[in-house]
C-alpha cells in the first residue's frame, strides 16, 4: 500500500459522503482533472483502501423501529464454539453488526426489529439458541444521535 497523500485523503473523504459521485464532480472537488482522479480512485480500490460501495437504507422506510444492542456472554470459552457462533450470525440479517469485545461480555451485537414484540421473539427463538450463548443483556436505543458517517482519515 502506498502512503496516502492529501489528495488521496480528499478523495476518500468525498466518496465516504457520496459513493455515487461522478468522476467529474469528484475530480473538481479534489482539484484534479478526470483522468488522474479516476486513476487514483482505481489505485485506492486496488490497494484495499476502499472495501466497496453501498447504499444507506432508511430504517424508518423499512419499518425497523427498534435498534437494540445485545451483550452476549458464554460460560464456556471454547474456540470451536465461538467459531460456530460467529459462522451462524453471519447468516442472520437482523444482526447488522457483531463485535468480539473485552470486558464482562464476549460479543456486542447490533440488532434491528420492527417492534419490541418482534425483538422479543427474535431473542427467544434465535439469539438465545445460538451456540455457546448463556446470557444476553439488551440495551434499546432511544434515539440515534450519530449514524455511521465513515472513518476518520489521518
UniProtKB/TrEMBL annotation:
CDD domains: HTH_ARSR (cd00090). Residues 4-67 form the HTH asnC-type domain. Transmembrane segments: none annotated. PANTHER family: LEUCINE-RESPONSIVE REGULATORY PROTEIN, TRANSCRIPTIONAL REGULATORY PROTEIN. GO terms for biological process: regulation of DNA-templated transcription; response to amino acid. PROSITE patterns: HTH_ASNC_2. One of its GO terms (molecular function) is sequence-specific DNA binding. It holds the Pfam family AsnC_trans_reg. Keywords: DNA-binding, Transcription, Transcription regulation. The keyword Transcription applies. This is AsnC family transcriptional regulator. It comes from the Bacteria. One of its GO terms (cellular component) is cytosol.
